[in-house]
Prior knowledge:
By secondary structure, chain A is of the alpha+beta class. Chain A contains 21 helices and 23 strands. Chain A folds into 3 domains: 9-39; 55-241, Penicillin-binding protein 2a (Domain 2), CATH 3.90.1310; 245-278 and 300-582, DD-peptidase/beta-lactamase superfamily (Beta-lactamase, 3-Layer(aba) Sandwich), CATH 3.40.710.
Amino acid sequence: MxxxxxxxxxxxxxxxxxxxxVIICFSALIIFLWYFQLIKGxxxxxxxxxxxxxxxxxxAPRGKIYDRNKELLVSNRPAVIVSVxxxxxxxxxxxxxxxxxxxxxxxxxxxxxxxxxxxNPFKTVKIYDDCEIKKIIEIExxxxxxxxxxxxxxxxxxxxxxxxAAHSLGYVGEINKEELQQMNSYNFQGGDIIGKSGLEKFxxxxxxxxxxGREVEVDALGREITxxxxxxxxxxxxxxxxxxxxxQQFGEGLLNSKKGCIIVSxxxxxxxxxxxxxxxxxxxxxxxxxxxxxxxxxSNDPDYPLSNRxxxxxxxxxxxxxxxxAIAALEEGIADANRKIYCPxxxxxxxxxxxxxxxxxxxxxxxxxxxxxSCNVYFYTLGKDLGIEILNKYMKKFGxxxxxxxxxxxxxxxxxxxxxxxxxxxxxxWYPGDTIxxxxxxxxxxxxxxxxxxxxxxxxxxxxxxxxxLVKEIISINGKSDKKIQRELFREIxxxxxxxxxxxxxxxxxxxxxxxxxxxxxxLEVSGKTGTAQNPQGETHAWFIGYAPQGExxxxxxxxxxxxGEGSDTAAPIAKAMFEKYFNIEKN
Amino acid sequence: xxxxxxxxxxxxxxxxxxxxxxxxxxxxxxxxxxxxxxxAEGDSYFxxxxxxxxxxxxxxxxxxxxxxxxxxVEKYSTFVYLVAIVLLAMVIFSGSTTYGARRWLPIGPFExxxSEFAKIALIIFLADFLNKxxxxxxxxxxxxxxxxxxxxxxxxxxxxxxxxxxLVYLAILIIMLFVVGVKIKFxxxxxxxxxxxxxxxxFFLKEYQKRRIILFLNPNIDPLGGGYNVIQSRIAIxxxxxxxxxxxxxxQSQLHFLPAQHTDFIFSVVGEELGFMGTIFLxxxxxxxxxxxxxxxxxxxxxxxxxxxxxxxxxxxFHILVNIGMAMGILPATGLPLPFLSYGGTFMISNLxxxxxxxxxxxxxxxx
Lengths: 588, 368
């Protein structure tokens, strides 16, 4: 049957080689399979799991912020974010043209965005933040031409009254690299929204809540198939402020178009009833990332609208400092209430002449008269007798150069001068003339309005300064009170009752007969002190510190108007208006 | 005729035929697993049903092949070659486009890939040509002639563009030349020249072809773009481990992380779901087919039969090596399908026609 083959032996020989070649190739394939499947199998299996399990972060809504009367100041709103899923885009060119037209942005920008933030084909790339309703509708109407475009919803901070109490409230923003390192916590990741300033920052841990998350199995198109794990987000706790938004709003009106600040606190517990700093800004601008134009405008503004002047501005206290000089003199036995000094309108130290603000002088004044008329010569004399070291001691007693301890971040410290300090800073000795200047609050001393507020707080409550605070209560998610902020004695200044008595008399007379007459209110015993701080850069700064009523004091007010001129002209009337508003006194 | 049929039945290589049947079922299983989740067609059996149709057509072609004495190729080889040229030329001028390449000709409701037909045509043409001119191949100039014939086909598919298929033609030619017994130094010379001409060829490659080669050299350059397929495929295969994750349980496969997982990357589905055991089993089946193929080539009645069988073996071998190598990321992604497993009509038919050629050579080694 079988015929002898006519195939040459050489060919059969070569076919044997082909078979050997096949065996070698297959062995190689088997070795590779063995390597990938058995040696690296575990590792690659892990990758396969990561590939299709996505962790989706569920942002916790931040806690709301209320004023002391439970009026809502800060809440959250849903924001629509327009994103694309690169893997679903059929034609990027066409898509970006269409989407650009609808969103009124350049198609080029969309293309660049997609290329820049491309992580993988199924991870969304944000194109347009916080889309307007009108555009959302247009996108939804054109959905069939916009394959790959998705609308995502995120909670966004909403500051209901825009710039009202902006410096106290602060603002939120995306966590940055430095903050991520600082926080050094596994709880944070890029893209998280955190408090950046003000209460939003100080109470971030309370307000932020806890992020939730879902582990979902997705297919290659990013479609969710099943939820493997779901941890609900825990909303942030609400906070109730000590701020009275009506008083706050009123105060902001008084400072409108001025630079400066007003501090109103409860003398008996440190609650801040109003904290105004002007000019201000709208924290809503920062929500979802501030535009570079807005940022430039705010950060380059020569009036520093972002700075909270009450804790971050440092200024000379001017004549309000005479309170410290008086206390030091009384306590150190340099003078008693009856010590009389003749003011000829000037004061001579060697061949240096220091002028009183009143040309021709005040004539003969005792301590109370000197305070109420703010006589420079009287305090020059006390200062000369006290010397810098004693004055320095009393400044420290009142907490100058230290944080006032309010629940806000980034307090400035200011400068309290001493002979040693001047030597270090300027390599110069402390001249007696420096003390003369300091005794009326001029020269090297600089402090924040809040540090000066310590002085008036101490006066109002006989040396007791309660910790200032803006938050009254923290409310947990179920609506129950989580924590009530109790009053806390922060600083007690040990000064004899007689000294307080003399000073209080002087401060009361200031309003009744002296420089503070513009704060006099019928039916309310207001006490206070004005100040006008020399300012080498320009117009003087106007100060007023005061409290009311005289006996059982309720509130303390500090008014500061940058380049405001005379304290008695500018600051005192503002303080009067605030007192009237607080005590609800009808203006005539 | 009845007697002839009996003889035919006696002489069919049942080992080869049964292995092909088993591998076809294995392929259907893998195909079902990789396409059942695809609801785009509204029918989880859509691809499987179509593939079964292709198999039926392919087996019919196989049967037809058996009844034609392979010596007929001596008469028709040039004609078959010319038909291939014409069809490939038609693709260039009127073919439809997928993934930026023209590869298809419409035939009624179906699309037909002439480059697949050209593979068979080339085997037939070269077998006849080399059989008739074996002695002359000792002259280097004459040795270059089959390169010219093959080169024309390569030029036509390269225009499509289809790098993978061009390489299949070249592989068929080289292996057939080797087996027919050309001087090794000629082959070495060709090999060296082609290596030296790679930099020149680089200028003729399309951008995407260059990218494929660059990405093959380092897929991590662009893990989610061009290198995506290769990385995902390697992850899928590797994650299968020894026994695999079980049929229909592959994370990568079932979740469609693998692009072209029912065509070019179906091996990854086998790797992930059936593991090392599954891939070894598949390689074993292929080894049997190649073993029987080479055996048939060796035992053929004459050189023509040997060369036809060699061409068939070369066809299968090259597809298997390149496709599996590509799935593991050890060879560049040239887009070659895996015989009997990858979804695709023309390819399935050409696979079975190639088996038909082998069986034909086998049964005609005796007179009947």
